[in-house]
Structures are given as C-alpha cells and as structure tokens.
Sequence to fold (514 residues):
Amino acid sequence: MDKQWTSIFLEEIEDFKNTINTFDKGEIERKSYKGISGGLGSYAQRDPSRHMLRLRLPGGRLTLERLKFLAEIIEREQIGRIKLTTCETIQLHDLSVVQVPEIMEEAIGCEIYTKGGGGDNPRNVMASPLSGVQAGEAFDVIPWAEAVTRYLLSICRDIHMPRKLKIAFCNGVDDCVHSAFRDMGFLAQPDGTFALRIAGGLGAVNPSMGVLVEEHVKPQDILYYVQAMVDVFCAHGNYENRAKARTRFLQDTLGCDGLREAFLKQVESLRAAGDLELSGFEKAEITKQTDDNLIEHVRAIPQKQPGLYAVKYHPIGGLLPVEKPRQLYELLKDMEGAEIRVAPDESLYIINLNSYEAKKILAATDDGAQTEFEHSVACIGAATCQQGVRDSQGVLRSIVKAVREAGISDGALPKICISGCPSSCAAHQAGSIGFQGGVKKVDKASCPAFKMTLGGSDRLGEARFGDGSVTILEQDMPALMVELGKAAQASGQRWEQWSKSHAKERDDIITKYI
Ligand code: SF4
Fold:
C-alpha cells in the first residue's frame, strides 16, 4: 500500500491504543468495542482481558518474510496460541492490550495489513492454496486476488457496507475456497476468464449458493465487478437488521434476476467511466535444481512444475504449534522459491520444494493429521470466541482421541466440520458431516449439543449443503463417531461409499443418539 494509506493506518492504530485501554478499564461496552476493534482485525476474547489479532494473508500467502515475522513475534511476545482459519488468515490468541496495537504496527513491515480483518469490511481475499503450482489448474489466480485486496484496502475507509464481504478466487481444480457460495466467487475458466457467482453465503438463516452472473469475466475487468458488488450491497443491503444484512439476502429482496440485472447494470455504468481496468501480471517461472527422485507420500503433492512438490501439513484443529513457524523458517530460508500457503481447511501447504527439500519438510511436519478424519475443521470455539455457543475445539479433541483409541482405519470416517455457533465459521453446511453448536433440552434442562447435518460437499461443480438437522448431545458425539466409523470399517468401504450404500444402517446408528 502507498505511503499515504500506510500513514493513515498508523494514525488509526495510534488512536486504537486509547480505545483498547479504555475498553480494558471497562469504560466501553463489549458490543461498541467489537465494532471498532473488528475494523482493525482484532476482537476481545471471551475473557475480555485477552485479545485475538487476525493477520490477513491475501490468497493465503505466508511468504518467507511473513513467516520470519511470525516466528520472531511469537518468540519475543511469548504467544501461546495460533490458529489457522478457514478464511486463510492466521489468528494470534491470548494477546494483552499492549501487544495488539504493537503487533498490528510491526506487521505492516512485511505487508500484513490487519485493517478490515473483522467487522463490516471486505475480508481477506482468498485463493486456491495451490494456485500457481497445481496440476490441471486453469491459471494462477493469486495475482488477481492480491490486486483485489489492494483495491479494497484503498477504498475501505470510504465505504459503509451493511455487513462483511467475502471474496474468493478458485483456480478451477477444486473449490476448497468455496467460490460457489461466497459474497463473490471467481472461478477460473480454461479460456483465461472467470465465471462469477455473487450473493452466496453461509449462516444460520438462508445459507445460499451464489447466483451466476457472468460466465466469462476478463481478469483485467474484475475491479469493475468488485466495485459494483460493493455499490449494490450498499444500495440494497439491510442496514436495519444485522441478521439479514449479508449479500445472500439480496436474492430475496431483489430476486435472482433482479439482483443479476442491478449488478450488471452497475458494472456497465462503472465501465463507462473506465478507470478501474487492471493490466496483466508478469510472473517469473520458478527455476531451481530438481532431480528424478520420485516422492511417494500421501502428503507430498507433485506440482505442475516437473520435479517440484507441495507438502501438506494439517495441525489438528488448525492449532499451529507455536514452535512450528521458527522450525519451518529455519528450513525454508535456504530453499529457493519456497513459501507457505494457508488453506481454507486449516492446513498449510509448503510449496516449490525439490525432492530433497520435500523429504526434510515431511519429517518436520510429521506431527499433524494422520488420516482423512484428522483433517477435520473446527473453529476456535466458545471457550475463546465471545460469540460462540459451544467449544468446537474441545469436542474435536475428544472425538479424535476416541477414534484413535478405537483404531478406526483411515477413510472409514470423513473430514468433519464443527462450528461453535450458527455463524458457521467452519462451513459445516458443506461438510460430509457437519456440526453446529447449540443446546438440547433434556428433562427440561438445556444441555450442550450440536445440530448434525449429512451429505454436504464443496467439490467443484457439486457444491451442496448437508441435509437434516438432528441434535446430538455433546457428550455422545465421540461414541457416535466411533460407532459410525466401526460400521464403515467393517464393510471394508470408505465413508462416502458406505454412507450411500448403507444409508439405513447409518441412520439407525444416528437415531440411537438423538
Ligand atoms: S462459528 Fe461461532 S464460535 Fe466458532 S469462531 Fe465463528 S463465531 Fe466463534
């Protein structure tokens, strides 16, 4: 960002020091503080003396410089908890009132801008985590995600949207970034253009797939579309009722055809003014020494560049061990072109490794998920999040422990998605098995429980939300998952196959726990 933008941001951080101190003294109420702090990417946790700071990483890019910053800040500030998020950001937890603005300020040095990381702002712009290196992709979408980030940051002080705006770029291989149901989802096409869906989104009310508005958007024109979305949202969004303020409700108020028409009309009027066109991006191809050694490992993914690999690492629950950034930095600093991508399933991909380097990284990351089930996604949960209802991390830990003790084989259970409340941060609606934190009445008492959905998918071209909403007591969830896993394992089938071919057996098991 330019000097003027940055100096205004520094002034905002300076003002924020007073705000966070005033909140700490109890002189600002939680809700008002949340409105201010979210605009700079921070929220108070459930314990109001502890704070979270969200590091925006456009396209999920944790470059070497950013990784070094992260390692240094964790060591110096003795940060005890780091969370990889489903929006490809990294959250630092349990910070003091002094640490939050200090880290915001320092992060600018490696082009991490926490501005707009929360609140009613354009959020971190996501991109397929293997963009630029993935075999079969239409094209590398990261430069476009970064260009949109720069644009949105440049206008974010001048706009007042009803709620947040989430934008994702998919490279056309898989849709783990959920372009099918974001406020704006750009899907790369083989002809070098984007198909664009708008006004999709998750949440307790009306989770909705996006409306297809254009099939061939030229990449150079994307800012016209982004600005048009902001304009339409500001013109037609609901400023009265926050529960109905996300763009997906425009599908109801304007109708899908009306929304498409209003949006495209605004695109054309912006295009007539004609000052938002981007130029193309030159990207240097990576050239580094490779060899013919083949690596056959479930976590080593051959890149489209011959001889190079991406290594996947998924810390359970997306909780990155605090020593890991330093360990990875010390290894990667001598590996030409290597960088890390934060993925929406709370994994890291370490990319651009030759076979020798990939072996080293595999060894350094062998403490992560070992099975498909252990790649499950869980939000930070109510023990930390002031908005939460249930402790999704605690539940995931107890299920993982039970499944390991029962010796359930890899593949018998799917990756599950656990959100601690209807805000749906773990995108549970798109999980094969999804859980949403809530309560269940037992003998007139409210007991911790989760709503369960089945059959969701975020596969490219097959996106759908899970069905059913039975409610399972939290205490029963480990036993339920073990029983389902044992049944699938006994059949010799993987979960997807068993869940279809043995639907009655599956439902009978679930019914026992309702
Ligand atoms: S889903 Fe709810 S509990 Fe989980 S992080 Fe989001 S707001 Fe917090």
Notes: Residues 379-382, 385, 387-388, 392, 419-421, 423-425 surround iron/sulfur cluster (CB under 6 Å). Residues 3-24 form the longest helix (22 residues). Residues 224 and 267 are 6 Å apart (CA to CA). The chain has a mean pLDDT of 96.
